[in-house]
Amino acid sequence: MNPRLGLIDYGSGNLRSVTKALERVGAHVTRLSAGGRIPDFAALVLPGVGSFGDSVRQLHARRLFEPVQQWIREGRPFLGVCLGYQLLFERSEESPGVPGLGVLAGVVKRFTAGIPGALKVPHIGWNQVTWNHAVRERFTALPERAYVYFVHSYYPEPADASVVAGTAEYGTSFAAAIATKNVFATQFHPEKSQDAGLTILQEFVRSLA
Amino acid sequence: MHTKRIIPCLDVTAGRVVKGTRFLQLRDAGDPVECAMEYNRQGADELVFLDITASSDNRRTMIDVVERTAEQCFMPLTVGGGIREVADVRDMLLAGADKVSINTAAVFNPELISRCSDTFGVQCIVVAIDAKQTAPGHWTVYTHGGRKPTDLDAVSWARRVEQLGAGEILLTSMDADGTKDGFDVALNAAVSSAIGIPVIASGGAGRLEHFLAVLQEGKADAVLAASIFHFGEFTVQQAKAFLHAHGIEVRL
Question: N or C: which end of chain B has fewer CB within 10 A?
Answer without folding.
Answer: C
